[in-house]
Amino acid sequence: MEYAKNILETIGNTPLVKINRITKGIEALVLAKVETFNPGNSVKDRMAVKMVDDAEANGSLKPGGTIIEGTSGNTGMGLALVAIARGYKLICVISDKQSKEKMDILRAVGAEVVVCPTNVSPEDPRSYYSVSKRLSEETPNSWYVNQYDNLSNSLAHYEQTGPEIWKQTDGKITHFIVGVGTGGTISGVGKYLKEKNPNIKIWGVDAYGSVFKKYHETGVFDENEIYTYITEGIGEDILPKNVDFEVIDGFTKVTDKDGAVFTRKLAKEEGIFVGYSAGSAIKGVLQLKEHFKPEDVVVVLFHDSGSRYIAKVFNDDWMRNRGFLETEVKLAEDLIGI
Ligand code: PMP
Fold it and tell me: Which residues form a coiled coil (predicted)?
């Protein structure tokens, strides 16, 4: 018999899929590492297990303990799967701008969800930061994950995602392109690949409204770069410890509109139903096309599933209200000409 001893054993070994239509005009082979195939439907399952493994090993997480993290989605889902398999409690602290759907998904997998107001300063006792901190101080036998600065996050990608990509491409990969949030994915995969072949180029996809690109180019943390944006999962207004700028060759920024439009194109033209940051990532590949030679092998990583964005990117009204959808609704009257 062949079976997994629990759901955690099904994490990883995700497929690499050729992009056929969207990349028309690019002669290089473009392959997508589709992380939706993980049981929690995102790449975050990998780092959730690794962070818990390391916390158990160093004694910060003890049997029967409570895991606390400020997360709205993918990391929470990954942590929930580990918590179930290993008998921990999980508290996810999230802001009220997150959709009800996301809260319901976390509750479905047994997490306790604490909702904080978005429009308060970080110092306010009701803020997401203050509440997470207070909960971790007040909850006995608890462990605060902190995916931004917890280096087990990038280590997971150094140990798993990087080697998988190297093996799947038979060492022929020339470019790796991926959205950057905590920096775990790009830094872990980038470090592994550069150790194997220092000529491989590592590119980050950033959002307009985020500090990464400017910081990488100038070494200046420019607060003027920070403003609200819609794209989810990529870009930051802080410099997480998990971003290793040394392994990153450059960043390209993708607009909210382009990210959303290309997420829909991935579903419609490739049959790959993935999340908003995947649209940004594939648009990033197109923006960088002058860097590729015909014989190159370009790998782009898609972080999560389209099902998390049904009410957003995949909803025509949501798209139209933001000016992201140019075609108007076709009314029956228009079609029959009355
Ligand atoms: N896309 C999505 C949907 C994410 O949830 C994240 C994590 N914030 C990222 C991209 C960026 O990945 P990383 O945190 O590893 O940089």
Answer: none
**Residue of 33, 44, 50, 213 marked catalytic:** 44
Using CA atoms, how far apart are residues 48 and 147, in angstroms rounded to an integer? 9
Query: pLDDT at position 71, please?
Result: 82
Task: Give DSSP secondary structure letters for 63-91.
Answer: TT-EEEEE-SSHHHHHHHHHHHHHT-EEE
From 49, 37, 35, select the one nearest 6 (Cα to Cα). Answer: 49
331: which 2 tokens?
A: 């009314």
Strand partners, 133: none
> Distance (Å, rounded) from C-alpha 183 to C-alpha 273?
23
Q: Best of 160, 303, 305 to mutate for ligand 1, by most ligand atoms within 8 A of CB?
A: 303
What pTM does this model have? 0.94
Give per-residue pLDDT as tens, 267-297.
999 999 999 999 999 999 999 999 999 999 9
Hunting for tokens 């056929």 — which residue is that?
20
Known catalytic residue at 191: no
Reported as type and span, the H/E element at residue 135 is helix 128-138
User: CA–CA distance from 159 to each of 104, 187, 244 (Å)?
Assistant: 32, 12, 16
Ligand 1: distance of its center to the CA of 89 in Å?
Answer: 24
Which atom of ligand 1 approaches the CA of 73 most closely?
A: 5
